[in-house]
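Hi P.,

Sorry for the delay on this. The queue was packed all week, but I finally got your sequence through. Input first:
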Amino acid sequence: MSESSGDDNSGADKGAEGGLRSVKTDNGTVRLPRNPERVVVTDNYAALMLLELGLVPVGVPDGTANPTLMPKRDHERLKDVKTIGAVGSPNSQAVAALKPDMILDQFYKDKSAPLKSVAPVAHFDWATSGALWHDQIAKAALAVNREDKLTEIKKRYQDRLGEVKAAYSKQIATSTWAPLSGGQSGQFFLGTPLVTVMRDVGLKIGAGIPADKAGFLAKSYEEIDVLDDCTALIYPVQFDGKPTPTTQQLLDNKLWKKVPAVKAGRAFSSQHFLMANYTFAIGAVDEIEEMLRKL
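Then the structure:
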């Protein structure tokens, strides 16, 4: 199995149960197994994407199975998976020992390229492409030939959106929202990939977040009045229910406590502030539904 820079599709007509197929990636057209079963990933987002597609990776970076960063069910499936070295520095010997049939990479093109001597590498740039989470999982589904699984979970997401939009149309129509998180040195950040889900629900996004942006837009605490047009705010917590230290600093700041939505009791926490897959997105819709109930 090897990479190719051409558009050879000679593997596309091989038997459905085996053989190779040609897939266009950001590192050229790559010959991938038709039904990969042993996939190594180089970032934790890719691991969560594969879980949603019904595939447990055989290798992940150190620290991927962090219970504060993912639902318990995902942590249980990843906690015993072999690791391949630090994030961004995959160890070729560790990867080879796992006998993968392909490697999925989204952030580390130069570091993952040498791994093609072990197995074909499908690189889909997320670091600089500006792609959103749903773009990336579609590419992952293509790479592992599980687009049917993706179609199923997308339908569940769309169905859940329809339920919430129908039940809370008045609250959605009469409110303005912004997600934000704490930053270093007296800064906070407006926006998050959660914005994509908020827009899918039909929420109006305020705080000057551009319509073509999801985040993250740096602001100083002195600019916190940018939140004054918001009916409700969303800030992140980890899956243990605790904010990160920088977000806790924001929540403890006296300027935060003067924001109208905060004073009104409409600052809500979300464990699904970052989007890894449609399961995360559905979790976010569930959380937003609870928030809408309180308006």
